[in-house]
Fold:
Amino acid sequence: VMNPLAIRFSQPRINPAFADDSDFETAIAAMVRRSARLAGAAGPAADRIYLQAPFPPIEVVSWRPKLRGPDGTALKDKTTGAPLLGEERWFTMDNRRLYCLQRAALEAWPHLCCAQVNVANVSTDRKV
Structure:
């Protein structure tokens, strides 16, 4: 499980409806919200709201994106010419589902939320 607010979108824009033409508001309203506690944690910081979505879990990947300038070109190290990379963060290609999870998490604020995710294994070997 992961906090939806800790996951980033892979694109700057999303389609305003799901592929089956259902809308986001219906999906957000259909989420089941349950109290949960983090295993091995104590005190109020361990309390969470578990968001059970009406759609399959999103798939996330840990990734260090290339840093880009205002014009969109990749920034490079002045000495080596290698691309400069940002901090490692969680990203998803399931942007519409992430939007719904993040909206539900914001509605529960200041309570922290978590939702089921699938972590994708990505090979860093670029030799293909």
Summary: Helices lie at 24-29, 95-108.
